[in-house]
Design goal:
112 residues, mainly alpha, 0% strand
Length: 112
């Protein structure tokens, strides 16, 4: 007896993963902007460094989007999706441990 997944179950999990990622994406764009005043107070950062909280994310996300599509064509969509979500999650966790604004800006760029 084989315990293979049926296509409908696998498709359901895929749909859930993609919908969750689609829900998180707009929150990650706006989350940095909303938290900027608190981050500035906590880390003592100036206005220029604080603008890079959102700019680093948007710049890296926008510039790497086409490259990610090309890599997905070459290596597979599932592999690139899982890799991208993994990097995003690791960068998100590391953001909570950022010791200063330079690290935070760099991790936001990696998160993008």
């Amino acid at each position: 007896m084989s315990l293979d997944r049926t296509p409908s179950v696998s498709a359901g999990w895929t749909l859930l993963a993609v919908c969750t990622a689609a829900l998180i994406l707009p929150l990650s764009f706006s989350g940095g902007a909303l938290a900027t005043p608190a981050i500035g107070l906590d880390l003592g950062a100036g206005p220029l460094a604080l603008t890079w909280i959102t700019n680093a994310f948007m710049l890296s996300f926008g510039s790497l989007l086409m490259a990610a599509g090309t890599l997905a064509d070459r290596y597979g969509r599932k592999r690139m999706f899982v890799s991208g979500v993994g990097v995003f999650v690791l960068a998100s966790l590391a953001l909570g441990l950022a010791p200063n604004i330079v690290w935070l800006d760099g991790l936001r760029a990696l998160q993008g």
